[in-house]
Design brief:
mainly beta, 8 strands, 2 helices, Porin, 194 residues
């Protein structure tokens, strides 16, 4: 699956870039770059609850309406520590997502609503340590799962090339039993380039 993902993403990006430049040729937004940092909350089904999320994205505008982007995010899923009568244990879990997709915007010049589609890989890792009677042990495990996401939001320009970016997305991890995720973030974006 990973090999298919690695081969499909560049092909999809090339097709979308070629098609978009043919439709909206000579667009002044073409070639501009955009960096975004974001934070918010995410809900991992009922079992894992709601957690904070932080991350970033980097996009390249094919034109005024279409952007190809890469993204990453970090979600601390929780930690716990216990100690009793000389025995102690601690554990933590986190999720790292790496992916990319296409953002299609429409609307005005100061507020540009958009829809997006994305896919990538989620890396869930759990680490734990325990100690008793002078001995300690550490264990860790991890799992990967491909995800697909759809969502929407708006780029709200507060200056000529920067502003705020509220976004909602639904994401589904497709492997390891599957998991539905709903995320709301508020980002700060800055455009630069041509």
């Amino acid at each position: 699956m990973r090999r298919l993902y690695a081969r499909t993403l560049p092909l999809l990006a090339g097709v979308l870039l070629t098609a978009s430049t043919a439709v909206w040729a000579a667009d002044p937004e073409e070639g501009k770059l955009e960096a975004t940092v974001f934070g918010g909350g995410t809900r991992y089904g009922q079992q894992l609850g709601t957690h904070a999320i932080v991350g970033g994205a980097f996009g390249a505008n094919a034109n005024h309406h279409l952007q190809l982007f890469g993204e990453f995010s970090y979600v601390p899923l929780g930690s716990a520590t216990a100690s009793y009568s000389g025995v102690s244990a601690s554990a933590s879990e986190k999720m790292l997502d790496f992916g990319g997709g296409v953002l299609a915007s429409f609307g005005g010049s100061r507020v540009r609503p958009y829809v997006l589609g994305a896919f990538g890989d989620g890396h869930d890792s759990v680490a734990g340590t325990g100690s008793a009677a002078g001995y300690s042990v550490s264990v860790s495990t991890s799992a990967n799962s491909v995800y697909a996401a759809v969502g929407g939001g708006a780029r709200v320009f507060l200056g000529q090339s920067w502003g705020l970016r509220p976004e909602f997305r639904y994401q589904r991890y497709l492997q390891n039993g599957g998991l539905n995720v709903a995320t709301f973030t508020m980002g700060f974006f800055f455009g630069f380039g041509k």
